[in-house]
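quick one before i forget lol
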Amino acid sequence: MNLDSRLMIEYEMLRRNNDSEPETSALTDQEIQELKVKWVKLLESDHKELFARIKARDHTQVEKILAEKGTKVEIIPKLGCPPIHYSKLNISNKEDEMRESPLIMAARVDRRMVEIILKYGGNPNQGNDKENPLSVAANRYDRETITTLLRAGGSLEDAVLKLTLPLRHVSEKQMKENSEAGYCVKPLTVLLTDDVYLKCRFPIKTAFKVCKDIKKIRKVRNEFEIEFELLMQEADTFAYEFLDQCDKMTEAKEILSYPVNLLKMAINQKKKQFVSHPFSQQLINERWNGDLNNTLLRGKTIIALKYTTSPITLPLLFLKFILFDLPRRIKFMKSDFTKLLKLTFTPCLCFITDALNYLTFLAIVVCVCLFPSDGKYHLGTLDYLLYYCVLARIINEIDFLVQQGWRGHFRNFWNIVDITIVLLLCVGAIFKGLIHYRVDSLLMKHANNSKEGGHIYYRQLEENLMLSHQDSMMVNYIYAVTEFILTLRVLGLLEISKSLGMMLIALKYLVIDVLRFGIILLTVIFGTSIAIYSMTISIHQWNKELKTSVATLFDGAENYTFSLLPYNKAHPEGEVKGPDVFETFSDTMRNIMWSTFGLLDVVNVAVEHEKATKDFINIILILYVLLSCVLLLNMLIGILGSTFDRIKENCDIEWKYARSQRLKEYSRAQPLLFPFFTLLFPFVIWFRGRLNEERRREREIGTSLRDGTERNKLINAVCDRFVFANWADSRGKLFDSRGKGETFEMRTKLRKQSTVLMQFGGKGRN
């Protein structure tokens, strides 16, 4: 028997005011179908009258109709009533032709009408493609109705999606329709004020989801970007202050771990302030250090010895498992081999392993450059070892890319650096392989033909080897750039240290500012170079054409020295050129750039018999110096200073967030050194999946509040503390404002805020 049939029978019995459980097993399928048809006909005849009474604002008749055709339900705060009552077979959820439910129509009336519909099983989340009850109440700026719907289990996230629907386009036609309809941000502001997240079942989770939804559409309309930024900031502040109301770490663990991993969500959404909270940091430390937590010096020393000797002991323990543990039927996850392998998967130890891999990688690259193979154009042992390291890095990057997704992977700056290093080394390997193949082919070819061709073949061999030498130098250039970038990558690992990490984080932001400034400076240099070079090249072309024309008209004029033409004294050979500093466009740009630092001698910028051109060039140079040296460079100094001050104020938050990203990265990293990781990659992937599943089960079992009711009581208790803290803070501000001579409007606003908070807290939180 399907769910609809059971619902039909239940509502038929409820309509007859019979509270006993219907005997579904005694009914045949034909009787059930007859009951269903009968009930649908009753709904079709009754719901039209219900809608008419709702539109007429007749509260008495609406309640009378619902009392006759439905039944009262018990509403659990923030949860609503049992889902069985939300069926569309209930008259309180029957939609009309426009797909509007009775609760949507009631939200257009007032709070009392909404309470009547909810009392008889109305679904607060039932809506259509454009609106739901909460979005309708927000458009009416009805805060009381919003509170009522949220207490009945209304979804704040769905309401935000409905209110921001005009800013979410899936086609150009819809974009045009939404643009013509216009948008107002005030209903969204009304919906998200007065600590609305407290009225939701999971306050922090709801705040994060709402913030994520707003972030997606904040730049669709520039005129509302500031309002959206303020709403996101309020959500982040609420999440931090709500977590701050936890009295113990155990309470914070329950809130952060259920129903989703809120700490992981905060790291993904860059909630830096929330991640830097002491409770969040304590949880991060526990996961980062693993078994090293709550361990004295002796225990830490033992763990360090186990990790150091793991490359030797792991193979031995694996043989022990095969030879001794398997015959005794000891499970793989309970063996000594697995216990030691689990230890190596600790994030802090994975970080140490990765640092050793990078140092080994850098050492091999340096050795390839400093100690080339015996044959200049042949591959040596170090080259093959380098390619093996590159293969290991490629496998590692693919592993991270699959786990994090391409967006999450490329969002990390150091991941982009890793991919750049791998690509450079791959290009270098391809170049070197082609050179090796070409040189061998040339030597083989000329060895066969040298006796017949004599010195001609030797000349061709020399030319081809010279080309190969130029290509080999290109490989050296690639390796040199890779060494520099790889050194910076190894330096980036020091972010884990608090003292050095703050400096490196500040340096990263400063480099970004310098790159942005470089775009502006290069644009100015390009414009100045175009202006100056266009003058010099025009004079050059004019002189060349004049000399050609005179030589054509008059015999012997080609041997005449044009002493009055520009630049002739500088170039007595007869070829007319511009000044040395502006001879070509590349020279012009290079010298203009050096003039920014005072390295261009303007006195040498002279044009013989062209005083106007000389004055024009000098004016352009003066304007460039004023713009670049006086304005742009001082602006760069100011930008770097303000960025450093901002990072210095938030350096602790920035560093803690950077460390949380390290935890996210190395929680899924591989624990083996590169020679073993490449060979054992499938086993590492399989074991990591088993280990993550085991950790997930341990976290579920390890929660102290396994009952959802107990967890709801904890969240409600924290909500009460939050309300009381805000009320006390508002009362304190009110008393302070009286002594400081604040305006009457400010005192009135604070008094209203205190009243709202007291009413919210006084109604009780079940």
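fyi The two ends are 36 Å apart (CA to CA).
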